[in-house]
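When time allows, look over one protein, given below as sequence and tokens. The question is which stretches look regular and which look disordered:
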Amino acid sequence: MNWRRARLLATAVKPEQWPRHRLPEVALAGRSNVGKSSLINHLVNAPVARTSNTPGRTQTINFYSIDDRLCLVDLPGYGYAKVPERIRRQWAPMIETYLTARENLIGILQVVDIRHPPTADDKTMAEWLTQRGLPAIAVATKADKIARGHWQGRVEAVARELGLPTIAFSAVSGAGRDDLMKVLKTMLLEARLAAEAGLDGAAAEPEGQGAGPSSP
């Protein structure tokens, strides 16, 4: 799966600003400064998402249309204490509302830094996603920052602590890109099959409603 065209579709802080389209959406959730924007830019091979060394820079929900087939959604980073309290109070309901109410959402990439153990915030997010049955995997970014021989151990530790399938990824070297693209392709396929099954069920419903029990 190769993507050729990406663009920022919308930025939002409330549901009324979410784009009105039928594209399936995959959201990226994670702590501030774990590399969500760099991950997006690498996947689409274009600098569409603004990157910064300052944690907490992303303060809106950013929607990126990919080839008009998929939308990657960059959520504000959680867990950065130096962001003003007023803003942090806005982020939690903004993220939760999107994750619970967005019908286009087909999966979540929980992004963590492979160099560090998952934080309490990471564990809370993973547990929350699991409880709600949302399809999710963990992406352990910045793999180029540690020796390759340590990847498997770190990936296994993240998977164990978060209870999610985990992929090591580097936006610098491209390691893990193929595995991640396979995951996204699977999410798209499963969403399409579920939609087709829903349409088939809706089409069959009138016939079922018309066949009531016969009178004695």
